[in-house]
Amino acid sequence: MATNHETLTAPAELPSGALHKVPSARLNKPAGRPDTLSVGVIVWLASELMFFGAVFAAYFWTRSITNDAAAAAGTPSMWATNSAHLDVTFASINTAILVLSSVTCQLAANAAEARRVSGSWFNPLKWGLREGFIVTIILGSIFVSGQVWEYFTLFNEGFTIQTNQYWSLFFLATGFHGLHVLGGVVAMWYVLARSLMTKTHTHEQTVSAHVVSYYWHFVDVIWILLFGVLYFLR
Q1: What pLDDT score was predicted for residue 125?
Q2: Which whole number is the average pLDDT over 46-63?
Q3: Mean pLDDT over residues 13-39, rounded?
Q4: CB within 8 Å of 125: residues ≥ 6 apart
Q5: Cβ atoms 52, 229 nearer than 8 A
Q6: Which alpha helices (H) appear in the chain, and where do they start and end?
């Protein structure tokens, strides 16, 4: 195999000791057309946006109906009484961790574009693809762990998905988002595994790093919207 991590621009040759040639399509950027993987992921993220749009629509519609019913009956709003049990400080710290992970993820994607697979741990600006994704995986895992901790805290207080409409929507929205974060962590492990199994950094691997960053930024933006709606809109 080749001994350096470079995105090759010349036609593929059979490296010494390799079992087969690396196809040119995997080594080089397609001329005159976008990468099919990037286009496919962008289209898929558009469908994910519609999914979360439906979640937000259900949330606001249910909130409007229950608030109107409470006002007509002269009773406190379900949204006001139940949202008071959320730990805003803890959720804010968890949100900051996820936002920071978006920065480290972009550093990894930039490193992949610059053909830098590994770099210095002591200088984030010199991180390679591996360092950036490893830190992002750690931060993403901390976020999910924090969300699980919050769930168990609410369970101990007697709030579950079956308690009422408010908690049903809260657990559905945050639960689906948590699954998306886990999916992003798995995708980054996949990109890392490929970088460790090969000695030649290809254009295909650069594209994989970028589409994972697209997905991760999307997940972060969705959470910022969810955080604002769930924790502050009462």
Answers
A1: 82
A2: 93
A3: 58
A4: 107
A5: no
A6: 24-27, 36-73, 78-83, 88-113, 129-156, 165-197, 203-232
